[in-house]
Amino acid sequence: MRRGSIVRITIYGVLAGILASVVAVLVPWLPTSASKEMDRIEFTFWFTTVICIAVFAVVAAAIVYSVLKFRVQPEDESDGPPIHGHTGLEIVWTAIPAVLVTAISVVSAIVLAKNDNAGANPLRIAVTAQQFAWKFEYPGEAKVTSGQLVLPVDQPVKLTLRSVDVIHAFWVPEFGQKSDAVPGIETTLVITPTRVGEYAVVCTELCGLGHSTMRGSVRVVQRREYDKFLADASAGASENPGETVFASEGCGACHEFTPAGTDSQVGPSLDAIQPTGGKPLEEFIRESIVEPDAVIAAGFRPNVMPKTFNQTLSDEQLDDLVQYLVDGQKGRK
Ligand code: CUA
Q: What is the pLDDT of residues 92-129, one digit of tens each?
């Protein structure tokens, strides 16, 4: 090959590489990382992307050069020369990608293993998914639960995921890690938050009518703020237990209830409940919680609200929740 051709191929390759790099760097493909695990995942992405850009540059250079150089002349209707393959070239273009793909696999396997390792003493938080809300239970005597996940920064956390009804999936884009919550089995997810802030918890498994509203949030805070949250939560639980049950069971994910500051419209509003069949308000509310399809409010559908509260709530929690809803009716108190 002449020197001029090599120079031209090189220029095409460099241009293609620059173009692909600009697309890779300037478009915000990923959210800004907020965990150690996401940092490793980003590294894997970049490792793969650099390899892809290099391969793309070589292939694009060869194509552009060939298209321009070997262009058929006008009026030339002759066949191209019969060419037999080039064994040396074929070995090269098989061997190099094999090495690159192996390298990507090795890096990915290392990152997967590291991202699954919570270290010796992680903070263990139990996550319960249910149509259509998240519940988080913290370790410790007080058995604190919350509807918003609160995590201390720079602390490895091991989440244990459970589902009480159908398959859901836990994902915080900024944390990178994602896992299904499957009824009957327990899955785990390791997260080490590195950035203080508030992020969305997204359900990424189509789980029913309220799937698109099955969003929670996670707040990453300094250690002392986390300790304060736990202390306040255990104190608050004894002050207004009904409010705590409402929040931790995720009732607000589907229902509007002004005292709790929620305004979702998946299910009927709880602000002014109208009992049917002449039932007393308290009895009606209790029935609607443990047997949601007994009475369906106009404009809503059956089989949306979970029928599991009968089993998941203790009698005491149920009493507290009913009392909280009764007290919060518009026009009362
Ligand atoms: Cu839960 Cu989608």
A: 999 999 999 999 999 999 999 999 999 889 999 999 99
The number of residues making up the chain comes to: 333
Distances (CA, A) of 251 to 67, 76, 307: 63, 76, 13
Widest Cα–Cα separation across the chain = 96
Cα(119)–Cα(24) distance, integer angstroms = 33
Q: What global pTM score does this model have?
A: 0.76
Nearest CA to ligand 1 atom 1: 168
- Report how far ligand 1's centroid is from the alpha carbon of 310 (Å): 21
Here the tokens at position 243 are 């409010």
What would the two tokens of residue 253 be? 């994910």
What is the Cα–Cα distance from 12 to 59, expressed in whole angstroms? 10
- State residue 296 phi and psi, 5-degree precision: -105, 125
Beta carbon of 215 within 6 Å of any ligand 1 atom: no
Dihedral sign, Cα of residue 263, residue 269, residue 273, residue 274: positive
Question: Do residues 266 and 213 touch, judged by C-beta distance below 8 A?
Answer: yes
Q: Ligand 1 mean position to 116 CA, how many Å?
A: 23
Alpha-carbon span 28 to 95, nearest angstrom: 33
d(CA 133, CA 122): 25
Q: How many A from CA of 288 to the centre of ligand 1?
A: 22
Of 159, 168, 176, the residue nearest 130 (C-alpha): 168
Q: How confident is the model at residue 238 (pLDDT cuts 50, 70, 90)?
A: low
Q: Which atom of ligand 1 is nearest to the CA of 208?
A: 2
Residues with Cβ within 8 Å of residue 46, at least 6 apart in sequence: none
